[in-house]
Amino acid sequence: MSNIGSSNTNGRRRNGSRRSHPPPPQPPQPEISPNQYVFAAATPDPAQYQNPNPHPYVEHQKAVNIRNDVNLKKESLRVEPDEENPGRFLVSFTFDATAAGSITIMFFAKEGEDCGLTSTKENMLTPVTVPFKQGLGQKFRQPCGTGIDFSMFEEAELLKECKMEVYPLAVKAEFIPVSPSVSADGSPEGGASNSQITKAVFEKEKGEYQVRVLKQILWVNGIRYELQEINWPAIPPPLPYVEHRKAVRVRNYVNLNKESLRVEPDEENLGRFLVSFTFDATVAGRSTFYFHNHLLNSITIMFFAKEGEDCGLTSTKENMLAPVTVPFDEGLGQKFRQPCGTGIDFSMFEETELLEVGEMEVYPLAVKAEAIPVSPSRSADGNPEGGASNSQITITKAVFEKEKGEYQVRGVKQILWVNGIRYVLQDIDRIGNSVDNDFDGNDPGKECVICLSEPRDTTVLPCRHRCMCSGCAKHLRFQTNRCPTCRRPIVRLLEIKVNTGSDN
């Protein structure tokens, strides 16, 4: 092995230490004359070299944390046409209030001392004060007849944006929370006053006036605060608690296929339409018995129906459309069609009644299927005994939709009543109408999408993705409120155990 750095040609190392070389000579330092300056890192500029653009003094303030009991949402502030007074426009917005108070709408307003507002054109537009109640997400709309007529003013007055004392629009929300104590005369003693003033100007876009908020002022106990918008990521709210329920397995004797629900023209009565659908009934041999003049197994068609207590349905337009009840027999894939002459004439109703959507009490269409399996024994008078150990009523609620000028039906909710207990039927992804014998928990694609080991037994609502096991669902509901499959918000988790055995 050769020696690195050896200076001997024979490969032998010299004895003794290496030769040391003296350091190179340093260049001479220049002398500093009295007229020269030496600049160091912390040396200030000399007087003769003053900075032509000095940095402005930046004020450093600490924000004050104040509870705002009334908050007007600036983005919702707008003007809407007054239907009863053409040419006038009304102010509307949404707001939150933790106590009751009053809102004042004032045009061409000037702020004074002690949270006071003064209208400079009160002779033309009188300020309007409206009381409000406690609540979040309230909608405010100026009373009809009190709005502004833009044609009465010059655009320069409405659209000015510079620093001004008079604002074209000001909204004052004020309330005085009362303490639980009561004065000697019996009236409640007042607490801390709180007022919020929102100042805005008008803007013209595509010939229409819009509202733009410039400033929001908060007065608390006579002290004036100016609300600032901070460009900082908002602190995410705590994740909502997601309810985790276990599904109840109930044998359904009558099942209406929602996808088959439709209306068909009545050939014998032009202009009327009949309800039709397919359904399954598993009640064996007990289909059209009458018991105390009541039809045991029957289907009822009801328009504009309202659900009451104890699985009752009430028609709100019974004088125009009487409910129709028809018996049915046992069988799968049966076709139901409403009897001729009992259908609906859509021209008799407003479209707003027929096409109503959202959460509602009255549904344009409801189908009630009732099944009461009876025992084969009969009473002394020959009627079947009501050995109904499992009375069932299935209610399908639907709305109408208009597509290409024709009305369609869409089922929105199905309710199942079993022995007086109300269940809401849910459509679950990856279950469909399969029976227990077709389900194999070891099939590929049946594992939980999170742990990839346990079978999927938990469904996310309202998106209906059956994608998790119950163990992962218990941890997920405290970490996020998004579905692992579609990322939609989770409202509820439903645990469903599918039997692989042969028990009924």
From TrEMBL:
Per the record, where are the segments of Basic residues compositional bias? 11-21
Signal peptide coordinates: none
Pathway assignment: Protein modification; protein ubiquitination
| Pfam families, per the entry | RNF157-like_N, zf-C3HC4_3
PROSITE patterns referenced in this protein's UniProt entry, alphabetically: ZF_RING_2
Q: Where is the composition biased (Pro residues)?
A: 22-31
The RING-type domain, residue ranges = 448-487
**GO BP field:** protein ubiquitination
Give its E.C. classification number: 2.3.2.27
Does the record bear Transit peptide in its keywords? no
Q: Which InterPro entries match?
A: LOG2-like_mRING_C3HC5 (IPR045195), MGRN1/RNF157-like (IPR045194), MGRN1/RNF157-like_N (IPR058981), Znf_RING (IPR001841), Znf_RING/FYVE/PHD (IPR013083)
Q: Which reaction does it catalyse?
A: S-ubiquitinyl-[E2 ubiquitin-conjugating enzyme]-L-cysteine + [acceptor protein]-L-lysine = [E2 ubiquitin-conjugating enzyme]-L-cysteine + N(6)-ubiquitinyl-[acceptor protein]-L-lysine
Give me the stretches of Low complexity compositional bias.
1-10
Q: Tell me the superkingdom of the source.
A: Eukaryota
TM segment ranges? none
Recorded hits in PANTHER family, A to Z, give: MAHOGUNIN, RE60872P-RELATED
What's the family?
A: Belongs to the RING-type zinc finger family. LOG2 subfamily.
**Protein's UniProt name:** RING-type E3 ubiquitin transferase
Q: Which organism is it from?
A: Rhododendron griersonianum
Query: Mind giving the lineage of the organism this protein is from?
Result: Eukaryota, Viridiplantae, Streptophyta, Embryophyta, Tracheophyta
